[in-house]
Amino acid sequence: MVFIHGGGASGWMWNKQVEYFKNFHCLVPDMPEQGQSSDDRPFTINNSADQIIELIEEKGQGKTIVAIGFSLGAQVLIAILSKRPDLIQYAMINSALVKPISYAKIFTKSLGIVHPLTRNKTFSRIQAKSMYIDEPLYETYYDENSRMTKDTLARILSENMSFTIPKSFEQANGNILVTVGEKEKKMMKDSMIKIINSNPRCQGFVFPKMGHGVSLADPELFNQVTEKWIQHDILPLSTEYIRTN
In 10 A of CB 238, how many CB atoms? Predict the structure, then answer.
């Protein structure tokens, strides 16, 4: 089971999932230039996809592969599925933005103002709260983000805000579950629909009353949904379940 973290986080965001899925061999890589990564490649979605493909090929030979990505990590997972359509048997794409944001270039150019705020604890705590990061994880979150360079942050934001679904994603095999929180922004819900319509093997699930970051906000619910999906069981809260034909 491979967990791919979101932007502004690293492998620690999956602690509750690793603890729950003890019967799996869990891999929790930090993407380039984030967390404790020792990968010397600059961060891009493409580089991160290549990194994780290499990891799966090294550790997952002959095993069923389950991959779960959140936000930026979900975009990376889409890239992996597009590059290697037969590599992963179960892919959970959680809160992936696939509709480019028109003001992305303007926003990244303003990082001279925004970047210093990553070292401001008041701003950092507001950001952490919006991502459902609790107190035990906050210092790790703050430390990692305060050490991130402006160039790295610019690359992450640019990649995230300009990502589109590769044409080859339609060839991805296996079981693909696309999820979003009910309280997420419209562009995230629209992205979910776009992903589902891009591959006939996709199913969808909306997490009720949740914003961006359900695996941290309600790990018990997230873990139960993930487990039931892997077991081909009926998902809880089935009225929120969307399936393509």
Answer: 8
Query: What one-letter code names the amino acid at 242?
Result: I
**118-134 tens-digit pLDDT:** 788 888 999 899 899 99
- The closest alpha carbon to 32, from 56, 15, 49, 18, belongs to 49
Joined tokens for residue 82: 């597009």
Give the count of beta carbons closer than 10 Å to the beta carbon of residue 196: 19
The residue assigned the tokens 């990692």 is 144
The C-alpha atoms of residue 179 and residue 31 are separated, in whole angstroms, by 22
5: closest CA among 133, 136, 169, 166? 133
d(CA 185, CA 170): 25
Round to whole Å and give the CA distance between 127 and 142.
Answer: 10
What is the value of pTM for the model shown? 0.92
Work out the pLDDT band at 207, boundaries 50, 70, 90: very high
